[in-house]
Design brief:
The chain is of the alpha+beta class. It contains 15 helices and seven strands. The protein has helices at 2-38, 42-58, 62-78, 82-97, 105-122, 126-143, 146-162, 166-182, 186-202, 206-249, 253-322, 328-348, 361-372, 395-412, 467-477; strands at 357-360, 381-385, 390-393, 418-425, 430-438, 481-484, 491-499. It has a five-stranded mixed sheet, covered by helices on one side. α11 (253-322) crosses α12 (328-348), α13 packs across α14 and α14 runs antiparallel to α15. The longest helix has 70 residues, at 253-322. It is globular, with a radius of gyration of 31 Å.
Length: 500
């Protein structure tokens, strides 16, 4: 009997050791993924997260599995690989459905729906993002997890602010702030505000930055008062507890005198703390109000500047047309005036929809290349690689962008070089036009600046520096983007990405 018991205990210990070793190996995959991510190795981190997701799932550790899976999804769409991201989410949902570990499936499905919602927000697809929010809400209610419900409120606020629904965003955010304030989780509210402001800045949403920052300042003013009241209440309770304890345990005159002295010191300290806190609070409130006024003034000034420059350009146009455009200086001024008006018009109508039409790609691309043919240097090869298919695009905007990129490519490609215009299908709803050329590359530190207007003073006869900023704004207005491919090292490659 003792031998059987000893043998059973040994088997149990060996089994526990095996499970511990397996879990340690799986945890090591996740640690390696996080290390790769910190080092900026996105592809390696993504691959390790996928492996960790699969290993966790095989052991029935579904929460860890889904957590690693959605991290891999985020790394896919960070590089605009939306097709792969949606495919991985589909596999994760299938894994959750087939799970038999007893984990609450609604809480797991919530996070996959959340990733889909964030992708649709990034793609500026309001209807699809709203649909995912509804799915998230259903899963949150079924999960019974209060943390998930709070996260849902945060994502609702992000959605409303992103798509300009300020009133709805304020209502949701107020509900979330009230819940966290009631539980005195002030640091969480502070973190949420900072996350919203960071999100708005990264998406260049000036109205969301201003709205959130204004609300943040008001909340900071009020929470300082709440914290002071909490501290005062705690001190008062401590004083009351001390008095009760001393009255119960020691009724002697000496003890009472000691208590009185202690209370007097405590009261003095409390008074000093309150005075100091009041001074700090008043100073902070004064600085906060000054910062709010400065931000508001800066935003109003920028808007007035843009409107003023556009008006001046429009008023100068009739006069400039009367001048001799054969003179380089006059031609440069006329072009600059036209560019200013174009840039202003796009920025002022950014939220308006862009019309598209079904366009045969091969003749469209050939025509664009023919427009620059003959301007290239000696022995430069011009190549068009476009399939015999059609795509829905805005021909005016796409044609303008590609024509500008091709003109630049032809101008800066040296003798015996090569210029390409290509079309690539990246997914069911994602496609790209790519313009590449051999030759000198734009330095890394200047690549972001080439898409920003008015950063440098230019000799207008040599260009006004507004060509690429205008192209960038056109791409954004179409719901896409224009960027430089950092992986192309033989010259320059510009990628115009659009979404059907």
């Amino acid at each position: 009997m003792k031998r059987k018991l000893l043998f059973s205990l040994l088997v149990l210990l060996l089994g526990m050791a095996t499970v511990a070793a397996q879990e340690a190996a799986i945890s090591d995959l996740q640690k390696r993924a996080e290390t790769e991510l910190k080092e900026g190795k996105t592809a390696g981190a993504r691959s390790l997260y996928i492996r960790a997701y699969e290993d966790y799932a095989s052991k029935g550790q579904m929460r860890q599995s889904v957590a690693c899976g959605v991290k891999a999804v985020a790394l896919y769409y960070k590089e605009n690989a939306y097709h792969e991201a949606f495919e991985l989410l589909r596999f994760i949902d299938q894994t959750i459905i087939g799970d038999k570990s007893g984990t609450n499936k609604s809480s797991l499905h919530y996070y996959t729906a959340k990733e889909r919602m964030q992708m649709y927000v990034k793609l500026r697809k309001s209807a699809e993002a709203k649909n995912q929010l509804a799915i998230m809400e259903n899963h949150a209610n079924n999960s019974g997890d209060e943390e998930i419900k709070n996260d849902l409120l945060y994502n609702k606020a992000i959605y409303h602010y992103t798509f300009g629904q300020t009133a709805q965003g304020n209502a949701v955010f107020k509900e979330m702030a009230q819940k966290l304030t009631a539980s005195k989780e002030y640091d969480k509210i502070d973190e949420v505000y900072k996350t919203l402001i960071s999100s708005a800045r990264s998406s260049n949403n000036a109205s969301m930055v201003a709205q959130t920052y204004s609300s943040y300042i008001v909340w900071k003013d009020s929470v300082a008062e709440l914290k002071r009241l909490d501290e005062t209440g705690a001190l008062k309770k401590q004083i009351a507890d001390n008095e009760a304890t001393i009255a119960d345990k020691d009724s002697s005159l000496t003890a009472r005198q000691a208590v009185i002295v202690g209370l007097a010191v405590l009261a003095a300290a409390l008074a000093a703390v309150l005075v100091f806190g009041a001074l700090v609070l008043l100073r902070y409130m004064a600085l906060s109000r000054k910062q709010k006024k400065t931000i508001k003034l800066a935003n109003e000034t920028n808007a007035l500047k843009a409107k003023f420059i556009s008006n001046i350009s429009a008023q100068l146009e009739p006069t400039l047309k009367k001048l001799d455009s054969r003179q380089p200086e006059v031609k440069a001024l006329q072009d600059f005036s036209q560019h200013i008006q174009t840039l202003s018009s796009i920025e002022n109508t950014m939220d308006e929809p862009v019309e598209t039409e079904d366009t045969p790609l091969q003749p469209f691309c050939e025509k664009l290349m023919d427009a620059v043919r003959g301007r290239e240097k000696r022995d430069v090869t011009l190549t068009v690689n476009a399939p015999k298919m059609s795509a829905k695009i805005n021909k005016e905007y796409v044609g303008h962008i590609l024509n500008h990129l091709l003109e630049n490519a032809v101008e800066y490609t040296p003798e015996e070089g090569h210029v390409w215009l290509e079309y690539k299908k990246r997914g069911a709803r994602t496609h790209q036009f790519v313009v590449s050329n051999t030759g000198e590359r734009i330095p890394e530190e200047r690549r972001e600046d080439v898409f920003k207007p008015f950063l440098e003073i230019h000799d207008l006869t040599k260009g006004d520096g507004l060509g690429l900023p205008i192209c960038k704004q056109m791409a954004l207005k179409m719901g896409g983007d224009l960027d430089i491919d950092p992986q192309f090292v033989k010259g320059m490659r510009f990628v115009l990405e659009l979404h059907a």
